[in-house]
Design a protein that fits this description.
The protein has 340 residues and is an alpha/beta fold. It has helices spanning 17-32, 49-58, 73-78, 147-160, 167-174, 195-200, 202-208, 240-256, 309-314, 326-338; strands at 8-14, 38-43, 61-64, 101-105, 109-111, 125-128, 136-143, 193-194, 214-216, 235-238, 280-283. Helix 1 packs parallel to helix 2.
């Protein structure tokens, strides 16, 4: 089912090639559940030209935006996530005034069931944050584009900043009446099921799984961690939702990437298990070659970060013929899924 020009749109943001891949998977997950609404992507200079071309091909519309940094290094350091500063760029979504209402989805979300009914919700609607339910999580929210709201948010940020240094602290402070608002503003958790809940409350997951509509791969442990050794996260968690994300990536998104920059197979490994609610944990440090994957970025000779691994992949400089070759990636995935 194609999108309709009804003034409604799903919006996401890509600031790097890695998140551009997430955005592509998200877009195809929305198409897979037959959304009736348009898909709009915001992207920055951090996305390479070839990945930008893929975003423009898959999304109905696209807008290049400047990076807004909260410059609040102290608060960001408190939660050990200095990279969250660029998430202030998310505020640009309020400038999409060609739409009457939008739903913002982080690029690390994945839609598993049609949820077009979210557009019936008022601004500002969001689900409780799993870590502190009195505030909302900004991975999924309903908003009404407005240039005035955008300006007000910037002014508010300049005066009050953000209690966590990121967009979540700012938006919770600005939309401070959310907790006391009526139920229409509070989305059920099933519209923003964070991976923390998947790992920490298996019984609830099994009970409410049929109602889940959107998965949010919260934190640094992203679904693409299945494709490389993530030394930062230290552990790999493989759930059915990670497998669904990877299968969509391999079956559709990877096919869209230029052959010159594609380094993994066009299909998922045959060893992908199908059991429900399975969670596998293992130390990624056991991976001999710590393989990674490039998602369409062109390697720049001599510019690979000294740390290699994840950093090299993020910078678009993976070792295509060495540790980051498909053969090594395939071995690592199969080991992870077998729990070796």
């Amino acid at each position: 089912m194609g999108s309709t020009d009804n003034g409604l749109a799903w919006v996401t943001l890509a600031t790097t090639d890695a998140y551009a891949v997430g955005a592509l998977v998200l877009a195809h997950s929305l198409k897979a559940v037959n959304t009736r609404h348009k898909l709009h992507v915001l992207y920055t200079d951090g996305v390479s030209d070839e990945m930008t071309a893929q975003l423009c091909q898959v999304f109905d519309d696209h807008t290049k935006v400047n990076v807004l940094d909260s410059a609040d290094a102290e608060n960001l350091a408190l939660i050990n996530r200095p990279d969250l500063g660029v998430t202030f760029t998310k505020l640009h979504c309020w400038r999409l005034t060609q739409y009457s209402k939008c739903v913002f989805l982080d690029a690390d979300t994945f839609v598993v069931k049609n949820c077009d009914e979210l557009f019936e919700r008022p601004e500002f609607s969001a689900a409780p944050d799993v870590g502190w339910p009195d505030i909302f999580n900004t991975g999924v929210f309903v908003f009404v584009p407005s240039e005035q709201t955008y300006r007000n948010l910037l002014d508010f940020a300049l005066v009050y900043g953000s209690f966590d240094g990121g967009d979540q602290g700012l938006l919770n402070a600005y939309f401070s009446t959310w907790r006391e608002s009526d139920a229409t503003h509070r989305l059920p958790f099933t519209y923003n099921v964070t991976t923390v809940a998947i790992y920490g409350y298996a019984a609830a997951l099994k009970r409410f799984a049929p109602n889940i509509k959107i998965i949010h791969f919260l934190g640094k442990q992203k679904p693409w961690a299945l494709l490389y050794g993530d030394g930062v996260a230290g552990m790999a968690f493989v759930s059915d939702y990670h497998k669904q994300w990877y299968q969509l990536y391999a079956n559709i998104v990877q096919q869209l990437l230029p052959p010159s920059s594609s380094v993994i197979s066009s299909s998922t490994p045959s060893s992908l298990p199908s059991s429900s609610f399975s969670i596998i944990q293992h130390p990624l440090t056991s991976f001999e070659n710590r393989p990674i994957v490039s998602h369409g970025a062109t390697a720049i000779p001599g510019r690979a970060p000294a740390g290699g691994g994840y950093e090299a992949w993020e910078a678009g400089s993976p070792d295509y013929l060495g540790a980051d070759s498909f053969a090594n990636i395939q071995k690592a995935i199969e080991k992870a899924l077998k729990g070796e």
